[in-house]
Amino acid sequence: MDSRQRLRIAKQLEKELNYKRFIHTMGVAYTASSLAMRYGTDVEKAEIAGLLHDCAKCMDTEEMMSLCREGGIQLTKIESGNPALLHSKAGSVLARKEYGITDPEILSAIACHTTGKPGMTRLEEIVFTADYIEPGRTSARRLPEIRQEAFLDLDEAVRMILSDTLAYLSTTGEPVDGMTKETYEYYEKYKNGGKA
Question: What are the phi and psi torsion angles at 135 (to 5°)?
Answer without folding.
Answer: -55, -25
